[in-house]
Amino acid sequence: MIVAETLENIANTAARMATLDEAALATLKQTWPDLRFTLCNDDDMPARLPAALKRERFNLYLVGGSEHCLSLTDDPMQAIGVVLAEVDEE
What we know:
Strand content: 25-35%
Helix content: 10-25%
Number of helices: 2
Largest sheet: 5 strands, mixed
Radius of gyration: 12 Å
Distance between the termini: 34 Å
Order of helices and strands: HHEEEEE
Shape: globular
Oligomer: single chain
Structural class: alpha+beta
């Protein structure tokens, strides 16, 4: 389960980072060791699933782990991780 406050704190921490890279992921993993974190480009995310939280440089999506398989979810009660999806500047 990922509560809204935790998701907001993750977004605030990521927003303060100069770049969204493996070092940024390591910081997030160290701060929230019980959660899984993945980094990708927002263009790689399926259009059918809305972001759980949007920011200027990135969007956050929830990862669920029900039935021992990881998948994207829109249910914070099932969430065990976050995808940090970087938005391309146009």
